[in-house]
Amino acid sequence: MTGDDELLRVEQVIERLIVRYPSASPVDIEHIVRTVHKRLAESRVRDFIPLLVERAAGRALAARATPESIG
User: Fold this and answer.
1) How far is 63 from 55, CA to CA, in rounded Å?
2) Per-domain residue ranges for the chain?
3) How far apart are the C-alpha atoms of 51 and 48, rounded to whole Å?
4) Residue 56 confidence (pLDDT)
5) How wide is the angle at C-alpha 35 spanned by C-alphas 64 and 23, nearest 5°?
6) Is residue 21 within 8 Å of 54, Cβ to Cβ?
7) Do residues 17 and 33 touch, judged by C-beta distance below 8 A?
8) Shortest CA distance to 57 belongs to which of 3, 17, 4?
9) What is the DSSP code string of 2-71?
10) Whole-angstrom distance between the N-terminal and C-terminal Cα of the chain?
11) What is the gyration radius of the CA atoms in the chain, in angstroms?
12) What is the DSSP letter of 1?
């Protein structure tokens, strides 16, 4: 996977999460995704980065949506 392919797939992750979490701000979703992606910047194997980013960002968004995290 080239760097451009990875960036395109990360953009697609953002779009999917915006649809999946309509109550979350798109700006917040993008920030979470980009933060997770940045944490993985030094990873040597790049093929699974978009998948890992989507899973980690999804967990962060789901945690924000739970009643326990609101209080």
Assistant:
1) 12
2) 3-70
3) 5
4) 97
5) 30
6) no
7) yes
8) 17
9) -HHHHHHHHHHHHHHHHHH-TTS-HHHHHHHHHHHHHHTTT-S--TTHHHHHHHHHHHHHHHHHSHHHH-
10) 42
11) 13
12) -
pLDDT in tens, the chain (71 residues): 788 999 999 999 999 999 999 999 999 999 999 999 999 999 999 999 999 999 999 999 999 876 654 44
d(CA 56, CA 54): 6
- Amino acid at the residue 31: H
pTM: 0.86
Give the pLDDT confidence score for residue 65 in this predicted structure. 74
